[in-house]
Amino acid sequence: MTSLVLPAYNPGPAVDRTWFAVERFVAGRPDPWEAVFVLDGCTDGTPERLARLSASSTAPIRVVSYSPNKGKGHAVRAGLLAARGARRIFTDVDLAYPFEDVLRIDAELRAGAAVAIASREHPESQLTLPAPVLGYAYRRHVQGRVFSALTRALLPLRQRDTQAGLKGMTAAVAEHIVPELRCNGFGLDCEFLTACARSGVPVAEVPVHVRYDSTASTTGMGATLRMLRELWQIRRAWRHKSVAIPPAASENVSLPRAA
């Protein structure tokens, strides 16, 4: 089985569209999938909304809810550890990446990768954006390039896109590495990749088709400063640390790639 984890904090009524899209996806797959919505201290009625949707659904979807809000990093960890799949993928609740990209990550894991991540910097990746957000997308691109350079200077990473909101891993990686992660914020992606680098876990980069529908952003000055602090904390915490994954547990059976 493959698990799809969707962390959420106060997504509002738009979460209904995500629920129905995920419901159609997991119910329509010929192979077994489950979805896990993780509600990170939501106070906007989302827990009640998803409880109603869950009560009338027969799809393999679970809801993990807790309070108070603890940050996206904590939500991702909680979802990956609550998941039951042999392959575990997390993505943003706004579904910025189409399910075709989710399947591409899953195919990479089935083919033998221990970790597979979306990369917007991959030469085969495509970006879709309406004209009104061109300026916003360009600023995000420049910010991303600067952040990537800084990240690679501070941490033992080679990936140029650490923050893409679509990543997958085997159950063995989730169960041995994820419990060692400590970042509760958006630095979780960098900490996870650092843990993989320190532990000798290879990371496959996968091309994606991402869309920008709005200028909503978490890259303000406050968020940037928090990220910088988290990068420094990651550097210190993982300077001499690694995680041993038992050989038997880390073996990933190679299966045919999804069409």
What can you see in these coordinates?
- Helices cover about 40% and strands about 20% of the residues.
- With about 260 residues, the chain is an alpha/beta fold.
- The longest helix is centred in the middle third of the chain and has 21 residues.
Topology:
Elements: E1 2-8, H1 15-28, E2 33-40, H2 46-55, E3 61-66, H3 72-82, E4 87-91, H4 99-110, E5 115-119, E6 126-128, H5 134-154, E7 166-170, H6 171-177, H7 188-199, E8 203-207, E9 209-211, H8 221-237, H9 247-250
Parallel strand pairs: 1-2, 1-4, 2-3, 5-8, 6-9
Antiparallel strand pairs: 4-7, 5-7
Biggest sheet architecture: 7 strands, mixed
Instruction: Give the class from helix and strand content and strand pairing.
Output: alpha/beta
Helical stretch tally: 9
User: How many whole angstroms does the radius of gyration measure?
Assistant: 18 Å
Secondary structure tally: strands: 9
How far is the N terminus from the C terminus?
17 Å
Unreliable segments (pLDDT under 50, ≥5 consecutive)?
Answer: 248-259
The secondary-structure element order is: EHEHEHEHEEHEHHEEHH
Shape, principal axes of CA atoms: globular
- Percent helix, as a range, is 40-55%
Mean pLDDT: 89
* Strand line-up of the largest beta sheet: 3-2-1-4-7-5-8
Strand content: 15-25%
